[in-house]
Write a sequence for this structure.
C-alpha cells in the first residue's frame, strides 16, 4: 500500500477525524467553516497558541487526556492526542460542540480513553515544545495498548451520536482542509482508518488471492473499496493501469509501462444498490485527492441520481460507468475501476461472446428518444417494418431470447410451479407434502443446474445417474424435469440459464484463452463482495473473463446466506478456486488434462490405481491429510482415537460428535474431518514424480481464509446473542456455515436483547411505549427515525404496517444491508414455524435441544421425548431460520427486542439458558427492571427523520423514505414536504422502469407529471434544498415524457428547464423543424 498518496504535507501533526466531527463540520455555514479550518491549520502546524497545557485539577488520566479548544464564545473543538502505528503522536478530532454540550462530549470521550493503559495516556499527554511550536513526540508504545479486557461502556443514548469505538475514523490532510474551506466536503469522502485485521487483509490483496470471511459489520466492503482506491491513486502517480498495481512491481520497474494497457479492476456484487453505493463511495474518495476547481467534480455528477433516488436502466449504466462489452474497443484505457452489479456483468458478458444473445439489449443500446421514435413508428399504419418476431411471436427476438425482467425467482417457483410437484393425494407430482420447498429449490439451482460439474457438462446439468450416485434424491431430480418444462411454458429464465447459454457459445466458437485475451480487455483484478450470493457456475463464468489467478478477492459471510437457492461454504469456494483457477486448464483447449498425483501422508507413497481419501479439518486450523484406502487410513484412525485418551471433556465430546456421524476427529483441534474420495491415479510409467511434487505444493499453497472479527456496528450485548445463534448453527449444521471466531465489539452497553413472550401485544405496548401508555384515548403510537420493525414475511409486514402506519416496517430479507439504532423483531419464531410443512415448526425449533445439551445448559421446558434425531439435509429449513434470525439481530447497533406471544418453548429456553438475552413473560416481571420500564420507542427530531429519509431515498426504498419525510413534516419541517413529493415522483419512475407494455408508458407519464408538480412546489417554497432545484426536476420530467411517448410535452419541458440542446433534438424527432431551429439558436449551436 502506498505510504503517502497525498504528497508532502505542510503540517507537523498527522490527523485522524472521527465520524461525528465530519457531521458537525458539514452542518456549518461557510464563514464558520473558514474559522474552524484556520484553527485546525494552526493546531496541525504545532502553533503553541492553539494548544493549551494539560489540566492538573483532576486525577482522572482519561479525562485529563481530553482536550478542548475554544473557537468562539459559544463553540469549541473536542480532541485528544493518540498514538499511531509507528508509535508517533497524532491529533484525533472528535466533536464540534456548543459550550453547553461540552461537558457531555468530554464525558463520552473519557469513556473511550479510559480503556487505554496509564502508560499510554501519559505518552499521549507528553508535549515537545520548542520555540513556540509543539512537535509530535515519538514513543516506544504500540497504537493499541489497551487495558486488559478493556471495552467502552456506554448507556443507550437518545441521540444520533454513536459511541467513539463504533465510529468510522478518517485521514484528513492539507488537501482535504482546502476543500473543506471552499466547499464544505460536499461530495467528498475521506479515506477510512482501517483496523488491524482490515489492514492485514488489504496488504494481502496486494500480493495474493484473498478469501475474506467476516460477519455482519466487520468491514469487508471497506477493505475492497480501499484496495480500489489505493490502486487507482498509485496508478495515477506512477502512470500505469490501475490493475498493474497488483502485478510484479520489480518487472514494472524494469520494463516501464506495458505495451498493451491492462484492464481495469472489476468489483462485482449481486445487489445493484450496493454496487452503486460502492461506486459513489469510491468517486467521493477520489474527489478528495483530485486537485480540481470543484470539490464535487465528477463524483458529485456521477452520484446526483443516487442521492435523489432516481435510477433508470440508463442511469445505472452511467453511474457504474460500464462499457457495453469486454471488447477492447469498448473498454476505455483509463485508470478508473469498475463497480458493477452481477446483472450488469451478465449483460456485458452476453454482448462480448459471439452468437445469439441470451438477453434483449434494446434498453442498453438505444437512447430513450430512439426507443420512443421506434414505438411511434410502429403505431403508424403502413410505415412500420415488421420483423419476423413481430409476425410470429413464438420466434426468438433478433437481439436475444429473454427480457432481463423475466427472471424466475423462488417466489414465482412457489406460486406457479410448486402446486405441480405434490404427489397423491394432492396431485401427480414426485414430492410428498413433507418436503422443504426451499430446500428443493436450492438443490435444483446449487447442485443439479448450478454446480461446477453441471455447467461444464455438455448438457449443462448433472445427469440423473450422477446425481443419484452422489447421494441425491431421485424425486428431486424428477422435480428438476418438471421445473425445466415449466420454465419453457412460462417463457422465463432462472439464474443458471444465461450462464449455461454463454458457456455453450464459448464452446461453439472455441474461444480459447488466447482468443479471448486477443479480443477482450480482461480485468486485471476481480473483487467479489457478498460472494455467498453467487452460484458456483456464475463464478466460473466470471473466471472466463480474467486471465489472472492471483488478483482475486472473495469477500462474504455464509452466516448471511439468505438468498434463496444458494448453499455453499468458503471451503467449497477454496476447492473451486484450486480446481478451476489454479489447477484447472482452459477447458476449451483440445487436449487431455494432465494427470495429477498425490502422496499419502502416512506411508509417503503416491496414490495409485486404487485411489484414496482426502481429509480436511472442519476449522480454520486447516490440516490436509491424504491417505491410501487400506492400512494407512486405519493407522490414521488409531492416531485420532489415541488423541482422545487422556483428553479433556471437550475433546471427548467432539470425538463422540464426529463418531456419531461416521467421521474422524482432527488430531489437532478435535473437530470432525471432511472426507472426499480421490479418483484412481496414473501409474509411475504414465506420469513423472515432478507432477506429484507440484500437486502437493499447489494444495498447500492455496491461501488460507482471512478473518475479520472486529464488529464496527453493534454493541457487545447484541453480538453476544448473535454469536450464540451462530454457535448453534455451526454445531447443528457444520457443513452449511463457515467456522469463525466470535465477533468482537469495543463497546459494551447496559442492555441485552429482550424476548417478550406469553402476553398479548396490547400489554406489550405498555413496555414499548411507556411514556404514552396503552392505546387508550385513541393515541397513535409510532417508533423513531432510527428504529425499525422487522418481520419474517410480506403478509406479516402488511399486518404490522396497519398497526404502525408511520413506522419503518420491513421484512428481514429487505432489511439486509441496512442498519438501525434499535430493532424490534415481531413474531419471528411463530411466523417461521408456520411456514414448515405438516405443522412441523415446533419440531424443528426443538432441535436446538441438541446444542443446549452439548453446552450443558438447562433444558427445562423441552421434553427430550419430543426431540427427533437431527438430519442436516431433512432439517435444513431450521438452518435457514437461524441465518435469517442472525441477519435480523445484526441490523441493530444498540438494542434488540423480540416480541412473540406464541414463541416455542425451545427458543424461550434457549434464550434463557444462553444468558445472552433476557426473557420477559409478564408486565410484573418487567416492572422490576429499570431499563425495560424506560421503554423501547424513541422520539426524534425533524432533522433526524430527514436524514433517515434521504438514506432510504438513496437506496431506492421509496415507501420508507416518504414515511420518514412525512414524520419530519409532522414535526414542523417545511423542507420535508418537498422531499416527500420528490420521493413519490421517483417511486413512480422506478415502477415505470420495472413495468412492461402499456403500463410502462402510462407510469412514465404519471412520473413526469409528478416531477412537474414537485418542481412547481419547490419553486414556490421559501427554503429550497440544494439537491432539489426546479430546473433539475423539470429535466427529470422531460426524460419521463420521452419514455412515455409524449415527445411534444418533453420538448416543451426541456425548453422550460433551459436544456435547449435536448429540446432541439426532440423537436427534430417529431419533425417540428422551425421550433428545433429556434432551440438550436437559443443553445448557441446554429451553423
Amino acid at each position: 500500500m502506498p505510504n503517502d498518496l497525498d504528497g508532502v504535507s505542510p503540517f507537523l501533526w498527522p490527523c485522524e477525524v472521527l465520524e461525528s466531527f465530519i457531521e458537525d463540520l458539514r452542518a456549518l455555514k461557510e464563514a464558520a467553516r473558514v474559522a474552524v479550518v484556520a484553527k485546525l491549520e494552526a493546531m496541525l502546524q504545532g502553533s503553541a497558541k492553539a494548544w493549551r497545557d494539560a489540566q492538573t485539577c483532576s486525577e482522572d488520566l482519561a479525562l485529563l487526556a481530553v482536550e478542548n479548544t475554544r473557537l468562539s464564545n459559544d463553540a469549541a473543538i473536542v480532541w485528544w492526542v493518540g498514538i499511531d502505528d509507528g508509535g508517533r503522536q497524532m491529533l484525533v478530532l472528535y466533536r464540534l460542540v456548543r459550550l453547553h454540550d461540552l461537558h457531555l462530549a468530554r464525558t463520552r470521550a473519557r469513556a473511550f480513553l479510559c480503556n487505554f493503559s496509564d502508560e499510554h495516556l501519559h505518552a499521549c499527554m507528553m508535549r515537545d515544545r520548542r520555540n513556540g511550536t509543539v512537535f509530535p513526540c515519538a514513543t516506544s508504545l504500540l497504537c493499541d495498548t489497551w487495558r486488559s479486557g478493556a471495552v467502552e461502556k456506554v448507556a443507550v443514548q437518545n441521540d444520533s451520536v454513536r459511541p467513539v469505538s463504533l465510529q468510522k475514523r478518517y485521514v484528513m490532510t492539507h488537501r482535504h482542509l482546502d476543500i473543506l474551506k471552499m466547499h464544505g466536503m460536499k461530495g467528498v469522502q475521506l479515506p477510512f482508518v482501517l483496523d488491524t485485521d482490515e489492514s492485514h487483509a488489504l496488504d494481502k490483496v496486494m500480493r495474493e488471492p484473498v478469501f475474506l470471511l467476516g460477519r455482519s459489520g466487520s468491514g469487508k466492503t471497506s477493505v475492497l473499496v480501499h484496495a480500489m482506491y489505493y490502486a487507482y491513486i498509485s496508478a495515477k502517480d506512477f502512470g500505469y493501469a490501475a490493475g498493474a498495481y497488483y502485478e510484479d512491481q520489480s518487472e514494472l520497474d524494469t520494463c516501464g509501462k506495458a505495451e498493451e494497457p491492462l484492464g481495469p479492476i472489476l468489483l462485482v456484487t449481486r445487489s445493484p444498490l450496493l454496487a452503486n453505493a460502492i461506486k459513489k463511495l469510491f468517486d467521493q474518495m477520489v474527489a478528495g485527492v483530485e486537485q480540481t476547481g470543484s470539490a464535487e467534480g465528477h463524483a458529485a455528477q456521477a452520484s446526483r441520481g443516487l442521492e435523489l433516488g432516481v435510477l433508470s436502466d440508463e442511469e445505472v449504466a452511467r453511474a457504474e460507468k460500464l462499457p457495453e462489452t469486454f471488447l477492447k474497443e469498448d473498454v476505455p484505457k483509463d485508470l478508473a475501476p469498475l463497480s458493477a452489479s452481477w446483472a450488469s456483468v451478465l449483460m456485458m458478458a452476453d454482448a462480448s461472446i459471439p452468437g445469439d444473445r441470451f438477453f434483449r439489449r434494446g434498453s442498453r443500446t438505444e437512447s430513450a428518444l430512439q426507443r420512443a421514435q421506434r414505438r411511434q413508428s410502429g403505431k403508424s399504419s403502413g410505415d412500420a417494418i415488421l420483423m419476423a418476431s413481430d409476425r410470429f411471436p413464438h420466434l426468438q427476438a433478433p437481439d436475444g431470447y429473454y427480457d432481463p425482467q423475466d427472471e424466475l425467482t423462488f417466489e414465482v417457483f412457489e406460486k406457479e410451479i410448486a402446486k405441480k410437484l405434490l404427489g397423491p393425494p394432492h396431485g401427480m407430482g414426485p414430492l410428498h407434502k413433507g418436503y422443504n420447498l426451499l430446500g428443493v429449490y436450492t438443490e435444483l439451482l446449487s447442485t443439479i443446474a448450478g454446480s461446477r460439474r453441471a455447467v461444464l457438462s455438455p448438457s449443462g446439468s448433472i445427469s440423473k445417474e450422477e446425481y443419484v450416485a452422489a447421494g441425491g434424491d431421485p424425486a428431486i431430480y424428477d422435480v428438476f424435469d418438471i421445473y425445466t418444462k415449466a420454465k419453457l411454458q412460462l417463457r422465463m429464465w432462472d439464474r443458471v440459464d444465461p450462464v449455461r447459454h454463454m458457456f455453450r457459445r464459448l464452446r461453439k466458437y472455441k474461444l480459447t484463452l488466447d482468443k479471448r485475451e486477443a479480443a477482450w480487455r480482461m480485468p486485471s483484478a476481480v473483487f467479489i463482495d457478498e460472494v455467498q450470493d453467487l452460484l458456483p457456475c456464475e463464478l466460473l463464468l466470471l473466471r472466463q473473463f480474467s486471465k489472472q489467478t492471483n488478483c482475486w478477492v472473495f469477500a462474504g459471510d455464509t452466516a448471511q446466506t439468505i438468498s434463496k437457492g444458494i448453499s455453499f461454504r468458503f471451503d467449497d469456494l477454496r476447492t473451486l478456486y484450486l480446481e478451476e483457477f489454479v489447477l484447472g486448464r482452459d477447458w476449451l483447449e483440445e487436449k487431455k488434462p494432465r494427470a495429477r498425483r498425490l502422496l499419502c501422508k502416512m506411508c509417503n507413497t503416491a496414490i495409485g490405481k486404487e485411489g484414496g481419501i482426502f481429509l480436511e479439518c472442519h476449522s480454520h486450523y486447516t490440516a490436509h491429510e491424504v491417505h491410501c484406502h487400506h492400512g494407512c487410513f486405519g493407522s490414521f484412525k488409531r492416531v485420532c482415537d489415541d488423541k482422545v485418551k487422556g483428553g479433556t471433556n471437550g475433546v471427548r465430546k467432539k470425538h463422540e460428535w464426529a463418531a456419531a456421524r461416521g467421521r474422524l476427529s482432527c488430531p489437532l483441534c478435535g473437530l470432525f474431518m471432511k472426507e472426499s474420495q480421490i479418483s484412481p491415479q496414473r501409474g509411475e510409467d504414465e506420469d513423472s514424480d515432478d507432477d506429484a511434487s507440484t500437486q502437493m505444493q499447489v494444495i498447500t499453497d492455496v491461501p488460507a481464509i482471512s478473518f475479520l472479527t472486529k464488529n464496527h456496528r453493534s454493541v457487545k450485548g447484541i453480538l453476544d446473542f448473535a454469536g450464540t445463534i451462530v454457535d448453534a448453527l455451526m454445531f447443528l449444521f457444520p457443513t452449511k456455515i463457515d467456522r469463525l471466531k466470535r465477533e468482537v465489539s469495543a463497546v459494551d452497553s447496559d442492555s441485552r436483547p429482550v424476548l417478550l413472550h406469553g402476553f398479548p401485544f396490547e400489554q406489550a405496548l405498555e413496555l414499548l411505549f411507556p411514556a404514552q401508555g396503552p392505546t387508550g384515548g385513541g393515541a397513535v403510537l409510532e417508533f423513531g427515525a432510527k428504529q425499525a420493525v422487522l418481520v419474517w414475511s410480506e403478509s406479516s409486514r402488511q399486518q404490522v404496517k396497519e398497526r404502525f402506519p408511520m413506522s419503518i416496517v420491513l421484512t428481514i430479507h429487505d432489511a439486509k444491508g441496512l442498519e438501525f439504532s434499535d430493532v424490534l423483531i415481531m413474531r419471528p419464531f411463530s411466523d417461521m414455524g408456520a411456514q414448515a410443512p405438516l405443522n412441523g415448526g415446533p419440531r424443528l425449533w426443538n432441535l436446538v435441544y441438541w446444542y443446549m445439551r452439548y453446552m450443558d445448559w438447562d433444558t427445562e421446558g423441552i421434553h427430550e421425548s419430543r426431540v427427533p434425531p437431527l438430519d442436516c439435509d431433512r432439517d435444513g429449513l431450521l438452518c435457514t431460520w437461524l441465518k435469517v434470525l442472525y441477519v435480523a439481530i445484526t441490523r441493530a447497533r444498540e438494542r434488540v427486542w423480540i416480541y412473540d406471544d406464541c414463541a416455542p418453548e425451545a427458543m424461550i429456553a434457549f434464550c434463557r439458558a444462553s444468558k445472552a438475552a433476557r426473557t420477559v413473560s409478564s408486565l410484573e416481571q418487567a416492572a422490576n427492571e429499570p431499563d425495560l420500564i424506560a421503554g423501547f420507542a424513541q422520539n426524534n427530531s425533524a432533522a433526524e427523520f430527514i436524514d433517515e429519509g434521504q438514506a432510504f431515498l438513496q437506496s431506492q426504498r421509496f415507501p420508507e423514505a416518504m414515511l420518514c419525510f412525512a414524520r419530519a413534516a409532522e414535526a414542523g419541517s417545511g423542507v420535508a414536504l418537498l422531499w416527500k413529493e420528490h420521493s413519490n415522483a421517483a417511486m413512480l419512475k422506478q415502477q415505470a422502469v420495472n413495468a412492461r407494455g402499456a403500463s410502462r408508458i402510462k407510469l412514465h407519464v404519471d412520473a413526469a407529471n409528478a416531477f412537474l408538480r414537485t418542481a412547481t412546489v419547490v419553486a414556490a417554497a421559501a427554503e429550497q434544498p440544494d439537491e432539489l432545484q426546479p430546473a433539475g426536476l423539470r429535466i427529470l420530467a422531460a426524460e419521463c415524457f420521452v419514455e412515455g411517448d409524449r415527445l411534444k410535452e418533453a420538448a416543451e419541458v426541456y425548453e422550460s428547464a433551459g436544456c435547449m440542446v435536448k429540446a432541439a433534438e426532440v423537436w427534430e424527432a417529431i419533425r417540428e423543424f422551425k421550433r428545433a431551429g429556434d432551440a438550436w439558436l437559443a443553445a448557441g449551436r446554429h451553423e
The longest strand covers residues 89-98. The mean pLDDT is 78. The two ends are 53 Å apart (CA to CA). The longest helix spans residues 998-1020.
